[in-house]
Amino acid sequence: MDTVCIAQIAAYEGREVELRGWLYNKRSSGKLHFLQIRDGTGIMQCVAFRDDLGPELFDQCDHLGQESSMVLRGLVRREPRAPAGFEMSVREVQIIQAAEGYPISPKEHGVSFLMDQRHLWLRSTRPHAVLKVRGEVLKACRDYMERGGFMLVDAPIFTPAACEGTSTLFETDYFEQKAYLTQSGQLYMEAAAMAFGKVYCLGPTFRAEKSKTRRHLTEFWMIEPEMAFCDLAEDMQVAEGLVYHVVQWVLERCQQELLVLERDLKPLEKITATFPRISYDQAVAQLKAQGSDIQWGEDLGGDDETLLSSGYDAPVLVHRYPAQVKAFYMKGDPEDPRLALCVDMLAPEGYGEIIGGGQREDSLETLERKIDAHGLPKDAFAWYLDLRRYGSVPHAGFGMGIERVVTWLCGLHHVRETIAFPRTMQNLYP
Ligand code: 4AD
Ligand code: MG
User: Fold this and answer.
1) Among residues 5, 49, 209, 325, which is most buried (max CB within 10 A)?
2) CA-angle at 257, arms to 255 and 263, nearest 5°
3) Domain carrying residue 39
4) What is the pLDDT of residues 4-48, one digit of tens each?
5) What is the per-residue pLDDT for 38?
6) CA 249 – CA 140 distance, rounded (Å)
7) pLDDT digits (tens, 9 = 90+) for 139-193
8) Does the structure show a pLDDT above 80 at 106?
9) How many whole angstroms from 401 Cα to the centroid of ligand 1?
């Protein structure tokens, strides 16, 4: 007898199969039980008659709590009224563990309660749908990179220095030295790009974000491509291509999940392969016209990003921010030294920044000056400066936040739902 999963059940119509899973819900009458079984790929209704199970097992099933684990054997029948379109006529039930008092019932619960129960909440349909989309987003990212000839290089997690500013570093004790959890793999990808040309990393990054916004995690995943012999214009093309590919991939493969999440698909379907590009100067002028009190020279706040992107159907690329609000490694714009050759991509529908990147400073002297000006420890960056000593070339890259992208694609209110075990300032458990 085949052991099957619910997602593939249609292929087994009319056959006797074995199903392994957990009890999601049940209804009973005197002589039959409707057992809703979930197996991680779907939920299926299984109908068990007293006469088939025998009185003892039938009574045991009557007292089974939600999430009891079991193996069922029986015949798969087409049943249009059942949620999966099929149901099982159960001949045999084997109870693996009888659970009692499962804290999450199919009724509504508050999110903070559910977050405390995240280890159990994962079993419900909503987290299931979101995490499926996340998995597809990661696949789409890797697929785009592989097709584009990028080589995967994993960046370290322990690092000796800051990449994205010293205020969000998590410090750890590293055998009598200080080490920090990585904020970004970028600096290592620059080394790898000089070795292999086109590279990317994809992994967790850490920031001690003291803000309690719905866009910030302290542990989040980033994909970071880096390309030798690349300028800002080409960097923006790759960023645009990646995001477009991810959107199409998810639209093709995650219809069911997006339906569960009640995501309106129209705004995603409208996205075209070319995204608008505007300079920071234009963005500030546009924002002022829309009523923002932003001044030239300031970074865009979350509200500005929302306001700005609301004017576009596609993600928008905002380039050439003032150097003073950006990281030390950004290359200055030769046409206006106040500006950096950088880009942020803002998602539509008010979801804010999903990508940050740009062209890197490739001159040794300028980079040394910037490291000093930012008050960064030169020793820790000695290896990074070597990259400008031995065959320095124009190069560029970016980082895309996986959770931000999943939040947008799923149409969620808060980024914490897009990772199995979110870490925020308030959340370290479970
Ligand atoms: O703009 P950021 O800080 O850029 C970098 O880290 C560059 N070193 C990347 C590079 O060029 N290789 O972060 C990149 C992206 C943001 O656009 C956002 O999507 C995500 O990472 N991100 C966060 N996501 C969730 N929680 C946070 N606290 C995040 N901080 C950044
Ligand atoms: Mg940024």
Assistant:
1) 209
2) 80
3) 2-97
4) 999 999 999 999 999 999 999 999 988 999 999 999 999 999 999
5) 97
6) 6
7) 999 999 999 999 999 999 999 999 998 899 999 999 999 999 999 999 999 999 9
8) no
9) 6
Provide the CATH number for the domain around residue 216.
3.30.930.10
220 C-alpha vs ligand 1 centroid, how far in Å?
Answer: 9
In this structure, what CATH number is given to the domain that contains residue 73? 2.40.50.140
pLDDT at residue 107, rounded to an integer: 78
Q: Which residues line ligand 1 (CB under 6 A)?
A: 163-164, 184, 186, 207, 209, 216-217, 220, 222, 224, 353-357, 397-399, 401, 403-404, 415
Paired tokens of 196: 């292999």
How many structural domains are present in the chain? Answer: 2
- Work out whether the CA dihedral 77, 80, 84, 90 comes out positive or negative: negative
At residue 12, the pLDDT reads: 97
Q: pTM for this structure?
A: 0.97
Q: Is residue 204 domain-shared with residue 326, that is, in the same domain?
A: yes
Contact 398, 224 (CB under 8 A): yes
pLDDT at res. 105: 86
107 within domain boundaries: no
- pLDDT tens digit string along 218-243? 999 999 999 999 999 999 999 999 99
Measured CA to CA in angstroms, residue 188 lies from 113, 183, 194, 204 at distances of 40, 12, 10, 14
Does 351 share its domain with 402?
yes
**Cα 208 to Cα 54: distance, rounded to the nearest angstrom:** 59
Q: 407 and 339 in one domain?
A: yes
Which has the higher per-residue pLDDT, 243 or 84? 243
Same domain, 61 and 123: no
| CA–CA dist 72, 3 (Å, integer) | 10
- Report the half-sphere exposure of 137 (CA within 13 A, side-chain side): 26
Mutate to test the pocket of ligand 1, among 180, 220, 328 (most ligand atoms within 8 A of CB): 220
Confidence of residue 84 (pLDDT cuts 50, 70, 90): confident
What's the rounded Cα separation, in Å, for the pair 190 and 413? 34
372 CA distance to ligand 1 centroid (A)? 23
Q: What tokens appear for 70 in the block?
A: 């079991």
Amino acid at 190: E
